[in-house]
Write a structure and sequence with these properties.
Elements (H helix, E strand, L loop, with lengths): L1 H42 L2 H25 L2 H10 L3 H27 L2 H4 L7 H16 L1 H16 L4 H23 L9 H25 L4 H4 L9 H35 L1 H37 L3 H28 L3 H4 L5 H33 L4 H25 L4 H40 L1
Helix pairs in contact: 1-2, 1-8, 1-9, 1-12, 1-13, 2-4, 2-6, 2-7, 2-11, 2-12, 3-4, 3-7, 3-12, 4-6, 4-7, 4-11, 6-9, 7-9, 8-9, 11-12, 11-16, 11-17, 12-13, 12-15, 13-15, 13-17, 15-17, 16-17
Length: 459
């Protein structure tokens, strides 16, 4: 064990130094939904909690697509920075901002003119749908500032500057919680808004974060040499396509996974609103650990992009393996927390004993899939840094939409296992994704190692 630690010690240290601020920043994004869920669960009731679950389950698909698109610039920036091509990084920022703003507008339009009008046809509780519609529209409005925030966040993180986005996310969450409680409860003379209160607080929070992150990037001395290449005239088809060739498949990867969980929420909603409320609690807790793991994944993508850019395949393999070790250790801890705190954790969200009992059962299942969830998202990050995005996209589609969701539907609805059957299907999908992505990493790693050996032998 000591020899293993000594082998990877420097990579553990470097990866953690880069990852911890990213993890906190990623956590900040999902804590917006967590705080919304807690505020609604305690101050607005079970029906409103189910409405948040339904709206959030639908909105998270375009949200994660947007985040995936914004990730397209990060490995490119990391690779060019590794080669000391600083002006090119600024030119990529120009194109990334252009792509992300257009994507945000498109995603808003899709949600505003799509799911909002189809909620009545998903066989959900009428009182839940009534509250979910306007809340979903507010969430859709926040996708544009999210895309602006992520443009500057991914640019800074691609260059190794991760702490500022972390601090902005922390203060953003504090703002969201304060505004959410004020609006929902109707404090300081404000009329109580119910579920709409957290919708407005989320929108204000995300607009503020986008503004502050942009100001930081343009005013910080850390980016002066990079921003020499930033200009509207540098928006061109070649660089935009480079970003989209990575960002679009990454968006699909996340979309296939998250949409499977969203579809699971719709399936669960047909079982009952108590089950849907319990699902919201359990999936929200699982999403916290997922987003923290995606922070490790983002760091892994940056490090693998740096090493890949300078063709240092030995350290690329060592760094990637260290990332796998780190996420396995972290997710093992969270699995234990879910197991031993399965009754206590749901209590933070609601006092409804029926909801707590079902959520406690789901957290045991969530504990099972922690290791699979962590390894698959880190695997995606490593491969993304190496520019390998197409095959992983196919893997995620097969894992969730060919294996996980259909089996979950069969077990949950046809075999009448209920909500646990649906969740066991999701566990199976995560397991298939984790295994196939790890195999993909090993194959590509071996290919580059063999190719490097041949070149050395020729020299």
């Amino acid at each position: 064990m000591r020899s293993l630690y000594n082998k990877y010690r420097s990579h553990y240290r470097d990866n953690l130094k880069l990852a911890i601020p990213v993890v906190i920043s990623q956590l900040g994004q999902t804590l917006v939904q967590t705080s919304d869920t807690i505020i609604v669960g305690h101050f607005a009731g079970t029906v409103s909690l189910a409405a948040v679950s339904l709206a959030s389950s639908i909105f998270v698909v375009p949200l994660i697509i947007g985040i995936g698109i914004s990730y397209g610039s990060t490995p490119l920036i990391a690779q060019h920075n590794g080669r000391k091509e600083f002006a090119e990084c600024g030119q990529l920022l120009s194109n990334s901002l252009f792509i992300n703003v257009l994507s945000g507008i498109a995603l808003f339009a899709i949600v505003a003119f799509g799911p909002v009008f189809f909620l009545d046809h998903l066989h959900q509780s009428p009182e839940v749908v009534k509250q979910a519609k306007p809340f979903l529209l507010l969430l859709a409005s926040s996708v544009i500032p999210i895309m602006v925030f992520n443009t500057f966040k991914q640019f800074a993180e691609g260059l190794g500057f991760t702490k500022q986005a972390m601090m902005i996310s922390i203060w953003g969450n504090i703002l969201n919680i304060c505004l959410g409680i004020t609006f929902v409860k109707g404090l300081f003379g404000i009329h109580p808004m119910g579920i709409m209160g957290v919708g407005y607080s989320t929108l204000i929070d995300r607009c503020t974060m986008a503004l502050v992150m942009g100001i930081y990037v343009f005013r910080s001395k850390n980016f002066k040499q990079y921003l020499k290449g930033f200009a509207l005239r540098n928006i061109d088809r070649v660089r935009s396509m480079k970003i989209l060739k990575i960002g679009a498949p990454v968006a699909l990867q996340y979309a296939f996974e998250i949409s499977a969980f969203s579809a699971a929420a719709v399936i669960i909603g047909t079982i009952g609103l108590i089950q849907l409320a319990a699902h919201q609690i359990a999936i929200n807790l699982a999403s916290i650990t997922y987003m923290m793991s995606s922070g490790l994944s983002a760091a892994a993508a940056i490090k693998s992009g740096n090493y890949f850019g300078v063709k240092d395949h030995k350290n690329l393999r060592l760094s990637s393996t260290a990332s796998y070790h780190l996420v396995l250790a972290f997710m093992s801890i969270t699995a234990l927390i879910f197991t031993f705190g399965n009754h206590l954790l749901p209590w933070m969200y609601t006092s409804d004993n029926k909801v707590i009992l079902i959520a406690a059962q789901l957290l045991i299942i969530a504990a099972i899939f922690q290791l699979f969830d962590g390894t698959q998202v880190v695997g995606l990050g490593i491969l993304r840094g190496m520019g390998d995005v197409n095959i992983p996209t196919i893997i995620t589609f097969l894992a969730y939409w060919v294996v996980g969701l259909p089996i979950g539907y069969y077990w949950g609805i046809h075999l009448k296992w209920g909500i646990t059957g649906v969740w066991y299907g999701l566990v199976l999908g995560l397991m298939v994704s984790a295994i196939l992505l790890f195999i993909r990493f090993k194959l590509i790693s071996k290919h580059h190692r063999d190719h490097q050996t041949i070149i050395i032998a020729r020299d």
